[in-house]
Amino acid sequence: MGFGTAFAIYFIIWWVALFVVLPFGLRTQYEAGEVVPGTVASAPANFSLWRVVLRTTLVSGVVFAAYLGLTMYFGYTMEDLMALAPDFSY
Asked: Which UniProt keyword terms apply here (predicted)?
């Protein structure tokens, strides 16, 4: 696997992990009891972008390492990995 391919796969995993990690630890303004006028009550109270980026990078690093281990070291192909998924064709 070339560097470009590995980077593209990591970027896709990172982007999906971002939306998985984003709601973790979220505290809304309503829950904090401090709704800023002009915003919705469900807006984050104390949003930290760097914390979300760090969590996303850690999660995606673990997932990418698992993918890399399965494909490079154990010899699984994408077809083998897809065969593990359940078949939803009815």
From this structure: Membrane, Transmembrane, Transmembrane helix
Q: Which of 10, 12, 25 is nearest to 55 (CA)?
A: 25
User: Residue 51 has which token pair?
Assistant: 């914390």
Alpha carbon 57 to its chain's center: 8
Q: What pTM, to 2 d.p., does this model score?
A: 0.75
Is there a domain that residue 31 lies in?
yes
For residue 36, the enclosing domain spans 3-83
> Does residue 68 contact residue 51 with C-beta atoms inside 8 Å?
no
Across the chain, which has 90 residues, the per-10-residue mean pLDDT values are 90 95 88 87 88 94 92 83 75
Residue pair 45/28 in contact (Cβ under 8 Å)? The answer is: yes
What amino acid occupies position 70? L
Residues 6+ apart with CB under 8 A from 31: 45
